[in-house]
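BUG-283 | component: ligand-complex export | severity: low

The export step for nicotinamide-adenine-dinucleotide jobs runs without errors, but we want the raw record kept on the ticket for reference. Input record follows.
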Amino acid sequence: MTSNTVFTGKTALIYGAALGIGRAVAQEFARRGARLVIADIDRAGAEETATLIRSAGGEAVALRCDVTSDAAVREAAVAAEIAYGAVDIVMNNVGGILHGNPQDIPISEWQRIIDLNLMPVVRSNAVFLPKMLARGSGFIVNTASFAGLYPFATTRMPYVAAKAAVVALSESLALDLEPQGIRVSCLCPGPVRTNVMAGMKTWSAGAAMRGPGAMLEIKSVEDVATTLADGMEAGRILIPTHEEAWDILARHGADPDGFIRSKIAAFAQGDFGRPSPRPAAES
Ligand SMILES: NC(=O)c1ccc[n+]([C@@H]2O[C@H](COP(=O)([O-])OP(=O)(O)OC[C@H]3O[C@@H](n4cnc5c(N)ncnc54)[C@H](O)[C@@H]3O)[C@@H](O)[C@H]2O)c1
């Protein structure tokens, strides 16, 4: 294990680590010396992540937690403290997508997606901010998406809004909390090979999926975990999985109207910005 001040001997609680990005991040944090608490609605998957960590020589426990419940988020924090003491790093990684034109998506679905992608960060903050502020230390990691950084995901608007809110919230938290000893990072995944689309609800069967850019490589979860942990060690706040994000954001920032209109033109020509080969997710 490498020695570093971010991970060595620290307790990390990850909400949403039974699969995909969360599982790979849990394994990477453990490799760098952290003890892991895996909290996920999928209890069996969470146990499997903890077993993988323990069989590689690390320390990990698993518990069931539905992050759409305030009480469950609080109870997971208490269980983590009982297992390993104060939580140094909390990662709010749960997310889920949908598919549909905005006129077809019912308000109840907006509420469900916001409850799954934005409110778990709020619930986690309600539990951990007072504790971390009292100690004057801690690390909060929130998982957003390229969909929250620049416009392309026209058939996932509740997800876009929720993830944009996670980016904005993370930036403001960093502004407020860094001077008080608490670090904040926001992982912004582009296309990553996972099962995130497995249970996706579709509201407009014929609507074409739009992607973040055909030039983007589809990353592995292992690459994403390394990028995140390296970024946290390097003191970064916004951590995109693909460095191309900075060029895209610079173009958007330099001429937002022009950027949007160039997307309209590309979509009209049938260039939907979908990385190739088709990823498991393009969120
Ligand atoms: N895969 C991608 O291309 C991609 C792109 C952008 C952003 N993201 C974001 O990355 C994060 C991880 O996504 P992933 O691709 O690894 O997805 P995934 O579906 O493989 O993993 C999501 C995890 O969250 C858990 N989960 C779902 N609902 C839950 C609930 N109510 N309570 C507790 N746990 C719950 C699942 O059991 C699973 O372990 C999400 O926030 C997602 O929006 C992924």
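Assignee comment: Attached the raw record above. The pocket of nicotinamide-adenine-dinucleotide is lined by residues 16, 18-22, 40-42, 45, 65-68, 93-96, 116, 143, 145, 189, 191-192, 194-196, 281, 283 (CB under 6 Å).
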